[in-house]
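## retry 2 of 3
previous attempt timed out at serialization; input unchanged, resubmitting
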Amino acid sequence: MNGENDTIAAIATAPGLGGISIVRISGPRCLAIASQLTGKQPAPRMAQRAQFRDSEGATLDEGLVLYFKAPNSYTGEDVVELHGHGGMMAPHMLLQAAINLGARLARPGEFTERAFLKGKLDLAQAEAVADLIESRTARAAKMALRSLKGLFSAEVNSLAEALLAIRVQVEGSLDFPDEDPKLVVNESVLLTLRETQRRLKMLLDQSRKGEALRSAVRVVIIGRPNVGKSSLLNRLSGVDRAIVMDTPGTTRDVIEHSMSLEGLQIEVVDTAGIHDTRDPVESEGVRRALQEIHSADIVLLVSDSETGLIEDRAYFSAWLDDDMNLIQVRNKIDQGGGRADNGEAVCVQISALTGAGLPLLSDAIREAAGITAIEENAFLARSRHIEALQEAEGYLDEACGRLQSEGATDLAAEGLACAHRSLGRITGEVHSDELLGEIFSRFCIGK
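## retry succeeded, writing output
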């Protein structure tokens, strides 16, 4: 990567008011810069109190200096951390002083990028750093930490090793063209390949569940006026986010609220009641409500009567796609709650007023999102991981089919090699500068 021998610096703590701020410096000149800023030679792995001064000797701040000698540092290079006071000005003045002494401002994610390039982390672990920082639920944070510890990478590497062993046998058979391929690529090879396929499918399933927990699921509430959509939003969110009145048409705009639903991050969207109206404000609210349907991951169609379940399903059918995740909600029941299947969509009976049936609705939302239970073994995978695993699965299926029926060993060998490369892209064994630039550009500066 360009500038990999530069000394880089950035503020590693979040901006704003706080007791402590950290300026991180990494690279060949970091120790010399720290010595000029503090007037002392920092000792490895020892916190030392220091006065921070600029090149002209003016005091900027005071705090602690820590030196991490290569290769035993986050980036694998010499790293110095300057722990000073928080706030808006002090850390920026200290950062500017480091830049004036020869460092340059780090790009987003450049510290972690260097850790990857120095072999301190593989690519999946590097991405887990960003996922851990961005986690909005305790479960997502735990899953990101599992990946950061290398558990996801270990699963991928184990599959890659199994594939390599199969490739050795299959490609080895190509060196003996006079031999019967069935004697070289025998049943034991096929059994190993099928077991590898099974393990890959399991990892793909765990990764898909983790992907659902990583991203916020957009849940859009629709229905006719005055069926209790806003009451449902308030009940799900636990706060009076939307105005609730008996007068139909109270909600005239889209109201959103982010929340955690038993570890699943969701964005609940309340919309205006959909009906024919000549009021221009209400008409705009209806238009926006219909627009929200197309951006929804899950749609809650709320009705307030048993007959409404059937009538509203027919009324809204023009705006609902056949493959849409639809949950019909029968609101305003007097007591209890139940769940049934009306043949076209899951139906949950609730009372937004009392909260009856809400646990059933939560279960239905989680099931529609692909999360049916606490996934202790899931991984907080990214879309590129899913794509790579799907590619590898396709290549393996194709290779297995060729070995079983056609005996096309050369084509099967190529499929196995492609599957192997797909897995390598997850951990970074196979990568490009463009891929690294895309991944690390999404990190915060200082990490």
